[in-house]
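Section 5: illustrative case.
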């Protein structure tokens, strides 16, 4: 329904229309799901020249193309590929641009497994990683080496929520001929226009807000013109593929993402303000709060906030914290985020560029779509248990 070359409309419209063409499918509103490995070719010439749009299931189908097209359109990229998880999207993006002997700069607040990939896998292939302070901005220029080929950003970081000055980082990276990769999962393609801010390759754990219902694992990586060929070739050569039913769940989630995000933001802000007034809380880490250190950069570069934020408590025993978390009724304890449900987990970020100083334990909250008064009542009862156990 959105012609690929038509000017982009408002995000709320694009999430509904992008990657769909009902009249090409007998009027079916949603693109059909193709379960396919083998695709038959009408002639030997067609088989040998791979002249069909789709030649083999692993290399894509109308189902995967529909979601890639939709994400690519939302991002305004040159092309998008799908990966079996958000983590696979991270590793794919890095492998697309790095070669043996290269140096890589990674923000110190990156998602834990991203660090593990750099430390445990990339090292085996002769790629050296330096972790940089997330708020370094233009100062990243001082860490650039002759062989620095990529700068990896995650803004805000999904445990500590620092906002990065991506335009300044991109400028320094490009000056040294390095590409900028951004894990844009927190903001989704809707709340941060990565390419307009100098990013070359943007990725999402679509498992979170794009799928939106905690029922499938999925990753997406989108490239600009300069990096698209490397991304497309590496994706094919690594044999990455996502099953059609999971792709469909990504497409289905996408259609309601804009409206869900608005509610996630409204609820997260209400919870964040309420938590700021609690005596047990040392600090709330959420760039949408006016007193957050990243607020002015967030206002400059983002068009909204999603529902994930952090809370630093005043010092409290492990037992007291457990008595709060163990009996919450609406906040589930589990990894991941971005679904319709509220979650709360203790967070233990790894830092090597500069130690992270916290007064007490750090919690990560995902504000779901439940009524905010009910969520506040659940937290209130939790703090009562924490205080009783202290
Ligand atoms: C910021 C970020 N990037 C990537 C991932 C990895 O996504 P997945 O769990 O789909 O592999 C996560 C998962 O929590 C994440 O929080």
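Designed sequence:
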């Amino acid at each position: 329904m959105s012609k690929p070359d038509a000017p982009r409309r408002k995000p709320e419209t694009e999430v509904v229309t992008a990657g769909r063409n009902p009249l090409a499918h007998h009027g079916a509103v949603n693109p059909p799901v193709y379960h396919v490995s083998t695709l038959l070719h009408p002639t030997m010439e067609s088989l040998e020249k791979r002249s069909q749009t789709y030649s083999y299931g692993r290399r894509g189908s109308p189902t995967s193309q529909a979601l890639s097209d939709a994400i690519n359109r939302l991002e305004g990229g040159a092309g998008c590929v799908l990966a079996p998880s958000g983590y696979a999207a991270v590793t794919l993006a890095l492998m697309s641009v790095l070669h043996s002997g290269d140096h890589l700069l990674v923000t110190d607040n990156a998602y834990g497994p991203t660090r593990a990939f750099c430390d445990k896998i990339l090292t085996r292939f002769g790629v050296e990683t330096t972790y940089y302070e997330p708020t370094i901005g233009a100062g990243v220029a001082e860490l650039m080496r002759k062989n620095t080929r990529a700068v990896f950003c995650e803004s805000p970081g999904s445990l500590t929520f620092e906002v990065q000055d991506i335009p300044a980082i991109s400028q320094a990276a490009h000056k040294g001929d390095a590409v900028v990769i951004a894990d844009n999962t927190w903001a989704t393609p809707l709340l941060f226009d990565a390419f307009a801010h100098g990013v070359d390759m943007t990725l999402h754990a679509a498992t979170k807000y794009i799928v939106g219902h905690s029922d499938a694992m999925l990753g997406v990586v989108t490239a600009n013109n300069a990096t698209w060929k490397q991304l497309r070739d590496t994706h094919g050569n690594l044999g990455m593929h996502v099953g059609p039913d999971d792709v469909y769940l990504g497409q289905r989630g996408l259609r309601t993402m804009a409206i869900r995000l608005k509610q996630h933001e409204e609820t997260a802000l209400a919870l964040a303000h309420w938590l700021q007034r609690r005596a047990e809380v040392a600090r709330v880490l959420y760039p949408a709060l006016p007193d957050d250190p990243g607020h002015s950069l967030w206002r400059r570069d983002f068009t909204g906030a999603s529902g994930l934020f952090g809370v630093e408590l005043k010092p409290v025993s492990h037992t007291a914290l457990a008595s709060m978390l163990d009996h919450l009724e609406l906040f589930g304890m589990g990894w991941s985020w971005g679904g319709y449900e509220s979650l709360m987990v203790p967070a233990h970020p790894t830092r090597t560029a500069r130690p992270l100083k916290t007064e007490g334990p750090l919690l990560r909250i995902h504000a779901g779509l439940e009524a905010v008064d009910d969520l506040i009542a659940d937290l209130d009862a939790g703090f009562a248990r924490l205080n009783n156990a202290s």
